[in-house]
Design goal:
The structure is a homodimer.
Chain A lengths: L2 H11 L2 H13 L4 E2 H8 L3 H13 L3 E6 L2 E6 L1 H15 L22
Antiparallel strand pairs in A: 1-3, 2-3
Helix pairs in contact in A: 1-4, 2-4, 3-4
Chain B binds a DNA duplex through helix 3 and helix 4.
DNA sequence: GTATTAATTCGACTATTATGGAAATATGAA
DNA sequence: TTCATATTTCCATAATAGTCGAATTAATAC
């Protein structure tokens, strides 16, 4: 991933409503969510959410698909993977950034405290 | 990591100069870099870089330490770890986000000791 | 065709962020 | 103390981002 795209993706996620919207889309999985449904669930005006979805979309983090009158949005996991990979490669000293998802029992905390 | 802090960290990295500054600090490792040295290396006015360093600092991604007349800045790897972990847990479907950046040359020089 | 539903784009506004020179603060040296 | 260095804070300004009602486009149904 190129740094300009990473910056766009980071900026897209760096906002309360957008982060929440993205999280909901991730949770919704492959089925995705229609724009209006999402706006109502979040208690945000349609036009505001539309603005935020456009930003996420422009950053490549979500994709849209028209189904009848609705526009279904879905998280693009590959883009998210690419972003996480970028951060680990470029911002974690080139070494392992100890990714450790919480479900895995942890052996020991390193010197950290 | 709490979502408010994640948003701050994401926002801190979502800017060209700040992302570059952070990357340079990561590369510099434990020795850190003085503010002025970094500003000159990046070709950015001192006052501008100071503003950006303050943002990174406020987001918890870097720390500062005075050494004589200089202020040395260092990347805080734990904060970065926490951010990556947050993204993987909350924005990758709760499952593995297939991080695997294949072969990274392990640099081995880090606080682990 | 008109009406209804779903969503976006427009427009006007407010708020936040970024920029960089000048002034202020902090340290160390003569 | 006075001078030089290192960096921040202040200030004014420019630029970008966020908000949301109203107008517009798109699809479907009657």
């Amino acid at each position: 991933m190129e740094s300009g795209l990473a910056i766009k993706a980071l900026g897209a996620l760096a906002q309360e409503q957008r982060l929440e919207a993205f999280r909901r889309l991730v949770q919704a999985g492959d089925g995705g969510v229609a724009a209006g449904t999402l706006a109502e669930a979040m208690g945000v005006p349609n036009s505001s959410l539309s603005f935020h979805l456009a930003q996420l979309s422009h950053a490549g983090l979500i994709v849209q698909q028209r189904v009848g009158r609705s526009l279904i949005y879905r998280a693009d996991y590959r883009a998210m993977n690419a972003l996480v990979a970028y951060l680990m490669e470029n911002c974690c000293g080139g070494a392992v950034c100890s990714p450790v998802p919480s479900s895995i029992p942890q052996k020991a905390e390193r010197s950290a405290a």
